[in-house]
Amino acid sequence: MDIKADVGVFGGSGFYSFLNDVKEIAVETPYGPPSDKIALAEIGDKTVAFLPRHGKDHRLPPHMINYRANIYAMKKLGVTRILGPCASGSLQPHVKPGDFVICDQFVNRTWGRRDTFYDGPVTTHIGGAEPYCPELREIAVESTRAKGLPVHEKGTIVVIQGPRFSTKAESREFAGNGWEVINMTQYPEVVLAREMEICYANISLITDYDVGLEDNPEIEPVSHEAVLKVFNENIEHLKGLLFDIIRKIPRERKNCKCSEELKRARG
After folding, report:
1. I need a surface site. Which of 33, 75, 183, 230 has the fewest CB within 10 A?
2. Active-site residue, from 6, 99, 208, 244
3. Residue 239 above 80 pLDDT?
4. Segments making up each domain of the chain, as ranges
5. Is 21 a catalytic residue?
6. What percent of the chain is modeled with pLDDT above 70?
7. CA distances from 206 to 29, 63, 132, 134 (A)
8. Catalytic pick from 36, 99, 210, 244?
9. CB atoms within 10 A of CB 221
């Protein structure tokens, strides 16, 4: 394509108006259409491509998102870094609504999602030990600290199938394993980005405590109203944080090996 972008952003629930003065484009992929048109805008010296995961009208539930098309569209635009902010639930009392978690690990509890670009004939085994880009994570942590926002510098996010939420028994299992965050869209988004050798970082905005924690007398039971309240109170913080991260991203990738993933994934 003649149109190019440097950084991609996937927006989640309630995050559809990230950029102003945008140019919208439709991108075709071999995997079908992405979730929506991609909005392009300039932030600092970079062109940013924004795509709402669920579509602008929130028509796509998490298990129906065409993750391969979304990632491929970013690759086709020349994107080398992707930021994946998302609204998430907390599994631990010390991770509070309004906190930000820069996740460093995930656990996949989804099924049936198309989660690879490489079905053959070349067998491709990407690494899974460190799924998130260390350079992008460091920039995200530093930027969140600099803005004085409550941040957890690492955390494990468990990705459930959706569209239903967890039972209390499931939530207690996740919490008992020591995992901090729960969400429905991080998988396979992050691994598909890695297969395309794109750096990826997750920024989880905690909107609520998951149901397994509600028996704790110090925690108020979650409600849809409370989730929206927390998200709306923090949406400007999240937007400002993303702008800051994007401005700080260096042109060259020097402190990660994301761009060399396929060299290590094939014999």
Report:
1. 33
2. 208
3. yes
4. 7-265
5. no
6. 95
7. 33, 21, 19, 21
8. 210
9. 11
